[in-house]
Design brief:
Chain D: Belongs to the ABC transporter superfamily. The structure holds four protein chains of four kinds. Chain C is α+β, with helices and mostly antiparallel strands. Chain C is 27% helix and 17% strand. Among the domains of chain D are: 199 residues, Rossmann fold (3-Layer(aba) Sandwich), CATH 3.40.50.300; 76 residues, no CATH class; 67 residues, no CATH class. Chain D has a six-stranded mixed beta sheet with strand order 6-7-8-3-9-10, with helices on both faces. In chain D, strands 16-17-18-13-19-20 form a six-stranded mixed beta sheet, with helices on both faces. A four-stranded antiparallel beta sheet of chain D has the order 2-1-4-5. At the A-D interface, helix 1, helix 9 and helix 10 of A face helix 14, strand 16, helix 15, helix 17 and helix 18 of D. The structure holds adenosine-5'-triphosphate (2 copies) and magnesium ion (MG) (2 copies). One adenosine-5'-triphosphate (ATP) binds next to strand 1, strand 2 and helix 1 of chain D.
Chain lengths: 330, 338, 555, 602
């Protein structure tokens, strides 16, 4: 009854190498190369990838972009604002060649610059938090799956505990009670560190479960036993035999976790427990924009669409990556 | 069967206990690490301008000077057996499960939780019906029409659905549908079901749709993936070889198997959501548990935060328990030794 | 464009009574975006609730039912007259009217008022949300409150020689004692009905309306007529509607929309409409005509704490005062409809106010030269770093903090914004000197309104060195100037209104001179009165519509 | 038609019940269209039996599915004419084809484990098949009918077992259920696609016997698809040999098997392991072939033709492996709610393996062979007993203490797909042993690996490839190379060829024999296929339910089996001669009655 365990792998191989006499068709190409070939063919995923790369560049080169296309993100332009109504003098929230997305009500800050700078926080937190989740999740997942027994029980119960928490509430509460300066960090650096840690830390069970499941099925494969019979220790087996097989799921779930984390950060900012102002964040802008939904729709749309496009791009790419790496989808 | 349920129950209670410890530690220990002391905690019970005497009195009354372990034991005792509180005029009994009294309005937390549950439950139940219905049918359709225009359109919509922050969709739909065109009632419109079922539904349509949009998208994707997997299984071929009509093959054989794992996720989602659909309730100002919790967190109202968190954990644990039992029923393999 | 043309009609209810009537009937609906701290009249510190609770909790004294200055007059309510003060100023005596009854028809007796004050001021372990002026002023040493000491006779500072007489003995003279008698804490509470913190669920009414059954906090509060209320005993007309409904935790924007559409009659919090509705009202002359934009006695300012470096140096504080662009602060705060630019502590609506602007700058836009000079004087030519604390859940305050940050940054003063929940802001962060020092909160935004409309009511908590507390401190500038402290004491004890007002103006000057206050806005609120609302005027003490006067138009 | 009248041409030819003309099936793939079946034609008369044989991937299943019309609505392109029971499968509308499926022609699939829906009772699934085509039947009637067919296929207590779920049945029983499901509407044709590939020999024999019985009793026609000529030989009248989608030879079974015309058929025949060939004969044949090859200069390079010592080492010398009374207990959860219970997968096994010897272990699935092998290599700690390897008692040695000994004992696994790490290159996989054992000189490692790759018949420049680029046979060679790189004294082969095609199997066995010859290896060879074991072992141990039931000299066990179980195993092996197959069937019947019906439950 060992068929189900390695069904995907063996069916893929069976298709690739039909008979003993015939040479395999796709010889020489590594699975990674095959995946890349497939990915390249997936227009939608590639679009996602291009946008992701673009957004990363935007985040990275925000100062340069803003220098040429906007105004400093924290610079006030009250001349753009009607003091009585608090909204832009010009229609459409002041959208013009000078202010590409218009200006923020009340203080006339350049929305374009703020959206561009907002990408920094979102991306930074999205990536770092994912890294934290992946590291913790992979470690515990692999250890639980490989050693089984009480280790597995312990880790699995811990994951249950984490999954039973209302994550958002918890993060909110935690951000609220944590001190203002710690670990030699303070201000926004600390805030970001805390957010990264909380988001990352509370998301690890999702990836942990996947890795654990994969590890359990891998552990049953005979190559693990073969390694043991050669005298390999646990470290070798975990690192050299199992980990390479987990790279694909880790990669896929990372790309799918990043957008989730970006959304999570924006939700926290929206609820007012994100990065402190005036640092622009998309969620924070949205939460400010609520009050001006009718008078300045551009204020709401600019960060909203930015979140949407970024998250969508990551999702598209992640989806494509999953398909490309999945041996079943031929 | 009985032993199984008992075992699961014990495990659930254990889980709750651990959750309560962690939550308690975070809310009572972390602030202390961060510099708050018994005085500041006590001050939270006192109004706008607390006098030192008032603070001291509260501290005394709530035993805030005790070691944390003792306080935790008290808390658990309150949960299980209830606690007596001195309300001033006489001793009032906060009966089990007692989550203590809100810092803010001096009211027992538990009845307030129970009070807000119907809102959240209405929100969750309505949304769940929509998202399960829509998500699953779209997912099935997409899987069956794999690669066609319908499939692509459905999946792009689904991806959009999971990529849109719920507060954004909520806000935009409120701005347009409620305020601009006034098709739907504005945020915060909640009528209890028993008062007027029509009003109830009308007031909740927008939150339902917003919430369901996100989840339907997720479920459509999961269903599609599950259906693609199961429709490739050998037993589907067997069913076809029996001469069954395609509809039977898809629903009775394919969907049944594809839905089984979705039950787990649904249970977890629903459990978490019953603890408060935080963003939706905040966006639509629905007086449910999520909004309650957010307000409480903003006001640093620890007993309430603790209560909602525990309440949610309880729902998750119970939902998981139910899912486990349901699983036994839908998937006979679970009964077999693995 | 249309911001000027509608001015004629705006503010109609500030200067006069709109649609005056004595027609009874209808349901008066209120909605609150949050909830009151407690509906217990002895346990609340919200102006709006002091205003609202008059429906069911009559006090010894109240305000005349008039708009404008006339409305600041005190008139006896349950008492037959204003307080009668002894020559040494230490004893105040009130006599109750005859025939005043509770909702169950039983008579209101002086001892119940004594009891109400005992529970609200001396049982701070239980009832602690309201102010404790009585505890501070009464000549009482070791009374433990009615819950620990059920013998009311041990509470010696208040005497009730007979059922209708109540005598207060003070430690020191206090000229404005009648104002204290307007507080809801003087509303009578029958000891038998008192359930401590839970009294809020079944307050025993002494006014024209009573709770409709036991009320569950958080749910809609319905008030129905109190049969035993006798309008003859009441100086005010406050019984027009048949029923009053107050719902809580409503979405703020939603409240505005319902007000504008006439679904709802009053926004209970009394803080005016939100940004979104403000835009709509100000753009539409018809709507604008139905709005009022009264000044309030609420001041917004930044406290500059002299115990946090570099603000221990006065020149550094002055640099901030000269560097701030108040027009920017005003816009950030919501523009002219949200507040006038403030130049000193005392709000213009407080009697005795004198206009001064000790740190004035051209057009209020800041004075670069003076700022630089002061920076040089304090030894930081190129600026310095500081923190600005604000309430993270108050958007206007946050924007103001950002505005200050923006204008200071021009002088190299870099600031970090530190947001704290408003729920604990006064108690644990800005109001905790220890915390302020530890986190180096040099600049803190704060808002302050008087508990009653006088200089003492306004100033005593925020400039009095004796009022500095380890937690819940309101004097967050930590100003401890002996001269100010002395003047405050003198004002308190003086029976001479004229003299008191002179003193307040002097304190204002002295406090400003300490350079620990950067006042920037005297709040104004934009109120909207739906057409169905009758008998509307702005109460000059609470700075919102006078709730108990309101009626509902009958077709 | 019955098996009593094997005449190829009956006097009156009734119209064929299945006729296929010029069938062509093409699948679109990433590498372009793939023609899985290419111009296949055949006919099947009512009551006839047709065998379709061919190696894996030759298009057998694709063709079978086409008969059922199961390529409809997939992306496969099917051309040609298919007529089944009067229905033109390629042109009829969906409803007609559906009415035909299960009713006129029923199919039994390759893998019984996955062909049944896990969430419905078997009764439900059979009843469903019945009521689809017999709409007038009441629920009670359908249920009765299901019980009847279950009874017919030999499920004990069908009236109660009808409520069981598939996972509660063994593989053989599931296959019976599938057959019952096929029978329930009394189809004219039963199409069995490798119905026994996933099963043990004994179970395989039972299923084949059952099919034969059914055919005789009900008169339905049978199409039997298999890659094993032995399976087809005993159960069909006509045969088609397929290769790469084309028919290479067809005709009467006897004719084709006796005098195959096409070389491919001959290769297939040669590859079938022969039970009647002793190890000595096989060794002799092998050696002559090799020396012949060497003379002509085409053989593998560095072979020392050291005359093989006596196959059995000196009896008095200390054996390389001594196992005493070894037991291994496992915990099984008794269902979802029950308490856990214990059972012994290996229960008191004692055996010895001498240096240079090769010991065969046979037994059906679950008899504890793998558990035993894993205990000998200490991949699994034993519960009881002693293991002495090369003079060391390793029964309870720590992993650290074992590490140096691991050089000397290696294991080759059953499944070449799961025993190679798909994410590591061949070089890494083979060289792992050296690296793990502390050899840090990567240049030397690489050289050694390349040499060994060549030795096992792979190209040295396969070094950097990943396993997925190799066929099953090639993979097993990699696995062999991995096992040999440390020059072990003992190699345990746990069913190294049972996942392979007959022809590949032959190549791998040949390689193993050569290596043993050249490197003086001691082998433990585990298999469930008796014929395979016979060819490679000096001594044979027969296991059943964790115990050794018989052991002894290889040829002796085969020629004069003592234990009835051994006899039953032997009788179950399919043979190529249809006449002999018939005799064996009778013999099996007798033995089954003697041993009892235990086989069914396995
Ligand atoms: N759905 C499909 N898509 C693409 N190629 C397919 C598909 N089904 C089968 N093939 C290919 O068609 C060829 C014939 O497959 P088929 O399953 O008929 O072989 P088989 O003879 O039954 O082999 P086995 O003995 O392994 O079952 C193989 O090369 C296989 O990879
Ligand atoms: N880890 C385990 N836990 C529980 N039971 C096990 C475990 N490993 C093996 N078994 C059981 O022990 C018995 C013997 O298994 P083993 O794998 O040794 O059989 P085998 O003879 O190798 O069979 P096959 O021919 O199928 O490989 C089987 O019933 C199996 O289910
Ligand atoms: Mg096949
Ligand atoms: Mg085995």
């Amino acid at each position: 009854m060992n068929a189900p365990l390695d069904a995907p792998e063996s069916s893929a191989s069976a298709a690739a190498s039909p008979g003993p006499g015939r040479e395999a068709a796709s010889q020489g190409k590594s699975l990674g190369q095959i995946a890349w070939l497939r990915l390249k063919r997936d227009k939608v995923a590639m679009t996602g990838a291009v946008i992701v790369v673009m957004m990363c560049l935007v985040a990275l080169f925000a100062p340069v972009i803003v220098k040429f296309l906007g105004h400093p993100p924290n610079e006030w332009h009250q001349e753009m604002i009607d003091p009585v109504l608090s909204t832009a003098n010009e229609p459409w929230g002041g959208v013009s060649a000078e202010y590409l997305f218009g200006v923020e009500p009340v203080n006339g800050r350049d929305l374009f610059s703020r959206v561009v700078y907002g990408a920094r926080v979102s991306m930074l937190i999205g990536f770092l938090a994912t890294l934290v989740s992946v590291v913790i999740g992979t470690f515990f997942g692999i250890v639980a799956g490989y050693f089984g027994g009480w280790v597995d029980s312990l880790v699995s119960r811990a994951m249950d505990v984490f999954l039973a928490f209302p994550l958002l509430l918890f993060a909110m509460a935690l951000v609220g009670v944590l001190p203002d300066a710690a670990f030699g960090l303070q201000g926004n650096a600390l805030r970001i560190a805390i957010l990264v840690f909380i988001i990352g830390f509370f998301n690890w069970p999702y990836i942990g479960r996947i890795i654990r499941g994969q590890t359990i099925s891998l552990r049953e494969r005979e190559f693990v036993e073969a390694a043991r019979s050669l005298g390999a220790g646990h470290l070798h087996i975990l690192g050299k035999e199992l980990l390479p097989n987990l790279v694909a799921p880790i990669l896929v779930y990372s790309t799918l976790l990043i957008p989730t984390n970006i959304l999570f950060e924006s939700a926290l900012s929206f609820l007012g427990v994100g990065v402190a102002p005036p640092t622009p964040t998309w969620g924070g802008m949205l939460s400010d924009a609520v009050r001006f939904y009718n008078a300045a729709p551009n204020f709401m749309l600019a960060p909203g669409i930015a979140i949407f496009v970024t998250v969508l791009a990551f999702n598209l790419f992640g989806d494509g990556l999953r398909d490309a790496l999945d041996p079943r989808t031929h | 069967m009985i032993t199984y349920i008992l075992r699961r129950l014990v495990a659930g209670v254990g889980l709750l206990l651990v959750v309560s410890m962690v939550v308690f530690a975070i809310f009572f220990l972390v602030p202390r690490v961060a510099g708050a002391d018994a005085d500041t905690l006590a001050a939270r019970y006192v109004g706008k301008s607390p006098s030192p005497e008032a603070v001291a009195a509260v501290k005394e009354r709530l035993n805030l000077d005790d070691p944390i372990a003792v306080q935790y034991a008290e808390f658990v005792k309150g949960l299980v057996m209830g606690t007596d509180y001195d309300s001033g005029t006489d001793v009032i009994h906060c009966s089990a499960p007692c989550f203590g009294y809100s810092f803010n309005n001096n009211l027992e937390v538990w009845p307030q939780l129970v009070d807000r549950l119907p809102v959240t439950a209405s929100l969750a139940a309505g949304a769940a019906v929509i998202w399960l219905g829509a998500g699953v049918s779209i997912g099935v359709l997409s899987a069956l029409r794999r690669g066609t225009l319908i499939d692509r359109a459905a999946m792009v919509t689904a991806l959009a659905g999971v990529s849109l922050p719920i507060f954004f969709t909520g806000l935009v739909s409120l701005a347009l549908l409620s305020y601009q065109w006034q098709i739907f009632p504005p945020g915060g419109s909640y009528t209890p079901l028993l008062d007027n079922p029509l009003e109830w539904a009308y007031g909740l349509i927008l939150p339902w749709l917003t919430l369901a949009f996100l989840y339907a998208a997720m479920y459509a994707r999961m269903t599609r993936a599950g259906m693609l997997d199961t429709m490739g299984e050998d037993y589907i071929r067997t069913a076809r070889a029996k001469g069954l009509p395609e509809r039977t093959v898809v629903t009775k054989h394919g969907l049944r198997a594809a839905l089984t794992p979705i039950i787990t996720i649904f249970g977890l989602d629903l459990g978490l959501m019953l603890g408060g659909a935080v963003l939706t309730e905040s966006t639509f100002s629905l007086p449910g548990l999520g909004k309650f919790a957010v307000d409480a967190i903003r006001a640093n109202d620890l007993p309430v935060v603790l209560g909602v968190t525990m309440f949610t954990a309880l729902f998750v644990v119970v939902a998981n328990l139910l899912v486990d039992l349901l699983y036994v029923w839908v998937d006979p393999r679970v009964r077999a030794p693995s | 464009g249309g911001t000027d043309s509608g001015d004629a009609a705006q503010n109609e209810a500030v200067d006069g009574i709109v649609r005056p009537t004595d027609e009874q009937g209808g349901t008066l609906t209120f909605a609150h975006s949050n909830e009151f701290d407690s509906m217990d009249p002895g346990n609340t510190y919200y102006a709006a609730n002091w205003n609202f609770s008059r429906f069911y909790a009559r006090r010894l004294v109240t305000y005349a039912q008039q708009p404008g200055e006339a409305g600041q007059e005190l008139v006896p309510d349950l008492a037959t007259d204003l307080g009668e003060v002894s020559d040494d100023g230490l004893t105040w005596t009130y006599t109750l009217k005859e025939g005043v009854k509770y909702q169950d028809g039983s008579p209101i007796v002086a001892e119940h008022i004594k009891y109400a004050i005992a529970r609200s001021n001396f049982a701070t372990d239980v009832i602690n949300k309201g102010p404790t002026y009585f505890a501070d002023l009464l000549d009482e040493d070791d009374y433990a409150g009615p819950y620990q000491d059920s013998d009311l006779d041990n509470f010696e500072a208040i005497e009730t020689p007979d059922e209708r007489t109540i005598v207060f003995h003070l430690k020191e003279p206090f000229g404005e004692f009648d104002y204290l008698a307007t507080m809801p804490q003087t509303a009578p509470v029958p000891p038998d009905a008192d359930t401590g913190t839970q009294y809020q669920t079944e307050v025993v009414s002494s006014g024209p309306y009573q709770f409709d059954g036991q009320w569950q906090p958080g749910s809609t509060l319905t008030l129905v007529r109190n049969e035993h209320y006798d309008p003859e005993t009441d100086p005010l007309v406050r019984n027009l509607p048949d029923e009053i409904q107050l719902s809580f935790k409503q979405n703020a924007d939603d409240i505005d929309n319902r007000l504008l559409s006439g679904d709802l009659l009053v926004g209970a919090a009394g803080v005016g409409v939100q940004t979104a509705a403000r835009g709509r009202i100000l753009r539409d002359d018809n709507l604008k005509a139905r709005s009022d934009n009264p000044k309030t006695a609420f001041l917004f300012y930044f406290a500059i704490n002299p115990n946090v470096a570099p603000f221990d140096n006065k020149a550094c504080r002055e640099a901030v005062l000269y560097g701030a662009d108040k027009t920017q602060l005003q816009t950030a705060f919501g523009g002219p409809t949200a507040g006038d630019i403030a130049t000193s502590l005392l709000p213009p609506v407080v009697p005795g106010y004198e206009e001064i602007d000790p740190y004035g700058t051209p057009n209020h836009e800041g004075d670069p030269d003076k700022t630089r000079a002061k920076l040089a004087e304090c030894g930081h030519e190129d600026g310095f770093a500081a923190n600005i604390a604000y309430r993270s859940d108050r958007p206007a305050g946050q924007k103001a903090a950002e505005a200050l940050q923006a204008s200071l940054s021009e002088y190299g003063i870099t600031t970090d914004l530190k947001g704290y929940p408003s729920g604990t802001y006064t108690n644990e962060q800005a109001g905790s000197p220890e915390f302020v020092r530890q986190e180096e909160l040099g600049i803190m935004i704060y808002g302050w309104g008087p508990d009653w409309n006088s200089g003492y009511g306004f100033l005593s908590q925020i400039v009095d060195g004796d009022a500095i507390k380890p937690a819940g401190n309101s004097n967050i500038s930590e100003l401890d100037n002996p001269e100010i402290n002395k003047l405050l004491d003198e004002a308190a004890q003086s029976q001479d209104k004229q003299r008191r007002e002179e003193i307040y103006a002097r304190i204002d000057e002295l406090a400003m001179d300490s350079a620990t206050f950067l006042p920037f806005a005297n709040r104004k609120v934009l109120l909207y009165r739906p057409e169905e609302l009758t008998n509307v005027f702005v109460n000059p003490n609470y700075h919102m519509y006078d709730y108990v006067s309101l009626g509902v138009a009958q077709n | 038609m019955t098996n009593a009248s094997p005449a190829p041409t009956p006097p009156v030819t009734p119209p064929p019940v299945v006729s296929v003309r010029d069938l062509r099936i093409t699948f679109p793939t990433l590498e372009g269209p793939l023609t899985a079946v290419d111009g296949l034609s055949f006919e099947l008369s009512p009551g006839g039996a047709l065998g379709i044989v061919g190696e894996s991937g030759s298009g057998k299943s694709a063709a079978s599915l086409a008969l059922m019309g199961l390529h409809r609505a997939t992306n496969a392109t099917v051309t040609g004419d298919i007529t089944v029971a009067g229905v033109d499968v390629s042109r009829a509308d969906d409803a007609t084809v559906r009415a035909m499926r299960g009713n006129d022609i029923a199919m039994v699939f390759q893998d019984p484990m996955s062909a049944l829906h896990p969430q419905y009772t078997i009764g439900n699934q059979i009843v469903e098949a019945y009521r689809t085509h017999r709409r007038s039947a009441s629920a009670a009637q359908a249920r009765q009918r299901a019980i009847d067919v279950l009874d017919r296929v030999g499920i004990p207590h069908p009236a109660t077992r009808i409520n069981a779920y598939p996972h509660e049945f063994s593989g053989g029983m599931k296959q019976r259920v599938l057959i019952a499901m096929g029978l329930v509407c009394e189809p004219k044709v039963l199409l069995a696609d490798e119905p026994t590939t996933a099963l043990d020999v004994t179970v395989q024999a039972q299923i084949l016997d059952l099919l034969e019985d059914l055919r005789t009793d009900t008169g339905m026609a049978l199409i039997l698809v298999s890659h094993d000529l032995g399976v087809v030989a005993g159960s069909t009248e006509d045969i088609i040999v397929m290769r790469e989608g084309c028919e290479v030879e067809s005709g009467d079974v006897r004719q084709v098997l006796k005098s195959p015309e096409h070389p491919y058929t001959r290769d297939l025949l040669d590859a079938v392991p022969r039970l009647d060939l002793s190890r000595q004969e096989r060794l002799a044949r092998l050696r002559t072939e090799r020396s012949r090859a060497r003379e002509s200069g085409t053989g593998s390079a560095h072979v020392t033709p050291a005359p093989h010592p006596s196959p059995r080492g000196p009896v008095d010398a200390e054996p390389l492996v001594r196992v005493e009374n070894l037991r291994r207990r496992f915990r099984v959860r008794g269902g979802l709610f029950g308490r856990a219970s214990h059972f012994y997968a290996v229960d008191g096994v004692s055996l010895q393996v001498h240096r240079g010897e090769s010991l065969g272990i046979v037994g059906e699935s679950g008899s504890g062979k793998s558990t035993l092998s894993r205990m000998i290599t200490r991949l699994l700690p034993p519960t009881d007993g002693r293991i002495i390897f090369d003079g060391h008692d390793i029964t309870h040695s720590s992993e650290r203490a074992l590490r140096p000994l691991r050089r000397d004992m290696q294991i080759i696994f059953q499944n070449p797909y799961s025993s190679l790490n798909p994410r590591r290159t061949v070089g890494d996989i083979v060289g792992a042993g050296l690296r793990v054992q502390g050899n840090r000189d990567s240049r030397a490692v690489k050289r050694q690996v390349k040499e060994l790759l060549e030795r096992v018949g792979l190209e040295p420049d396969h070094y950097d490839r990943f396993p997925h680029a190799f066929s099953g046979g090639q993979r097993q060679r990699i696995a062999i190379a991995r096992a040999l790189i440390l020059n072990p004294k003992l190699v345990i082969c746990d069913e190294p060829v049972s996942a392979l095609d007959v022809s590949t199997q032959e190549q791998v066995l040949r390689l193993l024999a050569e290596l043993q010859d050249d490197l003086d290896l001691t082998l433990i060879f585990v298999a469930h296929d008796l014929a395979v074991v016979r060819q490679v072992s000096d001594r044979v141990v027969v296991m059943r339910q964790g115990r050794v039931v018989e052991s002894g000299d290889g040829d002796a066990v085969y020629d004069t089996p003592e234990h009835p179980y051994t006899r039953q195993l032997l009788a179950a092996v399919p043979v190529l001669d249809p006449e002999e197959a018939h005799e064996r069937r009778v013999e099996r019947q007798r033995l089954r009655e003697a041993v009892g019906d235990e086989g069914v439950a396995s």
